[in-house]
Amino acid sequence: MSSKQGGKAKPLNQPKADKKEYDEIDKANIQKKKDEEKMLKELKAKAQQKGAFGGSGLKKSGKK
Question: CB of 30 within 8 A of CB of 22?
Answer without folding.
Answer: yes
